Amino acid sequence: MLTGAGTSTASGIPVYRDADGRWMRPAPVMYQDFVRSPAVQRRYWRRSMAGWPRVARARPGAAHRALARLEAQQRVTRIVTQNVDGLHERAGSATALALHGRIDAVVCLDCAARFARPDIQCVLEACNPRCRSDGATSAPDGDADIDDGADVAFAIPECTHCGGMLKPDVVFFGESVPKPRVADARDALERADAMLVVGSSLAAYSGFRFCEWAAALQKPLAAVNIGRTRADPLFALKVSEPCGPLLDALAQQLDNA
Ligand SMILES: [Zn+2]
């Protein structure tokens, strides 16, 4: 099972791409730019401060709940998600593997200390009392679209242990998924009978490669997704429906089976 942004749209987490896989938003922050440039960090954290409340309010939707049920029925052995919102875990999934990390955690790049994102929000708001956190639209990673005029004066948080650079514990664009995490997900694929993709255009190679591996391993591959995906030629079955009601009906049918 590989899930993407389409799984969380009903929870109010917006998607990055339209049904044809086209980019709908300003380009996201690149990892190399973030670590090299204090200006990019200020811009990131200012937008993140504005976008966080919406992400923090998001609740699991029908798709998350149905997948947790399918997992409890042992129809799904592992949920690998490209989402960073933590909603599979909050819906009760025990096997969720967050391929791209979690937006509700922050890590120090110097001493590896970890922080809860709500605590960092308190620091951001205390240090930047003049920045409003409402009125902005938010992106899937908790980033928000706001104009960049006031970045210069924005105070960014630093590690309370070593004064080092903080970064959300998510895989940025231009950054690799940690190798043990990829190996863990690949291992789950090798042990699975089949793979289902839910709510992803598979535009990112970090997700698409699992479809390539499934095809190479001759595992049946299916998808529930509205719109084109990068792996369309590989699917034995593709259903273009909203994933929540469909998976809910499936879990219910299997409950009665
Ligand atoms: Zn530190």
Distinctive features:
257 residues, alpha/beta, six-stranded parallel β-sheet, 35% helix, 8 helices, binds zinc ion, elongated, three-stranded antiparallel β-sheet
Per DSSP, the total helix count is: 8
- CA distance, first residue to last residue: 21 Å
Structural class: alpha/beta
Strand content: 5-15%
Query: In angstroms, what is the radius of gyration?
Result: 19 Å
Shape label: elongated
Give a short account of the largest sheet.
6 strands, parallel
Question: How are the strands ordered across the major sheet?
Answer: 3-2-1-9-10-11
Hetero groups bound? zinc ion
**What are the segments in which pLDDT stays under 50 over at least 5 consecutive residues?**
none
Oligomerization state? single chain
**How would you state the average pLDDT, rounded?**
90
- Listing every helix as H and every strand as E from the N terminus to the C terminus, the arrangement reads EHHHEHEEEHEEEHEHEEH
Give the proportion of residues in helices: 25-40%
Total strand segments: 11
